[in-house]
Amino acid sequence: MRILFVDDEAAIRASIGEFLERVGHKVKLCENAEKALELMKTNHYDMILSDIMMPVMDGMELLRIVRKTNPGAIVVMITGHGTVRNAVEAMKEGAYDYLMKPVDMMELKVLLDRIEEYLNLRSNNRRMKSILKVYSTTGDDFVVFCDKMRDIYDFTRKLHEKPDIPILLAGETGTGKEVVAREIHRSEKTTPFIAINCAAIPPELFESELFGYEAGSFTGSSREGKSGKIELAENGTLFLDEIGELKHEYQAKLLRLLQEREFFRVGGTKKIHTNARIICATNCDVEHCLQQGKLREDLFHRLSVGLIRIPPLRERVDEIVPFTSYFLKRMQVDKRTTFTSVSKEAAKLLERYRWPGNVRELKHVLERISLLYQDERIDPIHIEHILNRTVPQNGGGTSVESLIASNKDFNLQEFINSIVEEALDKNEGNKSKTARFLGITRSELYTYLKNIE
């Protein structure tokens, strides 16, 4: 920190100033309050450390002026044993804390660490608030902390204004494709957002799921027929996740829907028009999917008009710590967890890890830490306990520490399963409480439990 130390006694200035520099801070020494105020006009200081008893202008008057001109300044007062009443008065005037003479250096060091942590947390909160004022939706938050994601956000603004343009979101699992899709849909609060995971629907049911069917169109069909997801998304958005898993014949029908904006129900003869916005997504590398024949070229070319490539978290390392602060704050509110900050050492570990599960994995790791501990600050011991555990992979075991060094991925599903199991144990098997604790729906929880079984 940059510290301005004000004291009229040269010996005290020298001894405390030397200590402050020895523990890693930049210090400016000043012999009176008048000179201190002049220095503050042209220089920024993270903290002002001032004696109370000084000639001409005392420390109390200095404090009052600083609080008026710079309300957010951190001011710590030093007082003698006979002037404790002045110290109490200083706290009422807005001083952060006070120290007694002779100053105990270890007590000063503890106070400095506390102030530094407070300043870091305040800085992160200010940054988050300024970003969230612009990059926030009514549901999931689209938060950005780097230029790459800011460019994507700006593009979503343009796409939002043109609902007839088909969109393809390409990015690894956990990068936030559905969050981006919802941001494109965003302000249409009264219109539907219908999501389909193409990989989760049996191929033979996909066509009826998307387009619906007429009564009696196939064995087991409803007598009244059924509207498809595209009809349910009328005036809103249809989100088709993992389109690379679709058979080519269904990709061809999807292409026709995009081009003509019209379709037939299964077994129907009446052409139905749609004005739904259609957003597709895939977690595979687009070029690789094209080369392997998993994705039709004509479908890709139609979708590429609104193509958004979402980079993995390892390519936007500068977002890891801000995302950590953001998730910790959300968990404090939603789940009443205790963690409020992350230490510099722990932050370095988080930034060094490759995050194969991307933002989703980071969130799950923080949830697991909050589940296992009730501390206020994340330190290396919390992260090492999570990331250095043995992770089953291909029937064997390996430490995540070695995976970090070798740049290999680990089994994310196993990792998620372990979080769900511990959350279920914590809530004594109550599935409703477990779902609320994890911030997911009961149906999503049942999906995870099926994977565990």
Sheet-strand content, in percent, reads 15-25%
| Total of DSSP H or I helical runs spanning 4+ residues | 20
Spans of at least 5 consecutive residues whose pLDDT stays below 50 are 131-139, 389-408
Shape: elongated
Rounded mean pLDDT is: 83
| Fraction of residues in H or I helices | 40-55%
Biggest beta sheet attributes = 5 strands, parallel
Strand order of the largest sheet: 2-1-3-4-5
For the termini, the CA-CA separation is: 52 Å
Estimated radius of gyration? 29 Å
Q: Which structural class should the secondary elements be placed in?
A: alpha/beta
DSSP, total strands: 18
Describe this structure in words.
- By secondary structure, this protein is an alpha/beta fold.
- The chain contains 20 helices and 18 strands.
- Helix 1 links the parallel strand 1 and strand 2.
What is the compact description of this entry?
By secondary structure, the protein is of the alpha/beta class. It has helices spanning 10-22, 33-42, 59-69, 84-92, 105-132, 147-160, 177-185, 203-211, 229-232, 248-260, 286-292, 297-303, 320-335, 344-352, 358-372, 380-387, 400-406, 412-426, 431-438, 442-452; strands spanning 2-6, 26-30, 47-51, 74-79, 97-100, 167-170, 193-197, 212-213, 226-227, 237-241, 262-264, 271-273, 277-282, 306-309, 341-342, 377-378, 390-393, 396-399.
Keywords for this structure?
single chain, 453 residues, alpha/beta, five-stranded parallel β-sheet, 20 helices, 18 strands, 49% helix, elongated
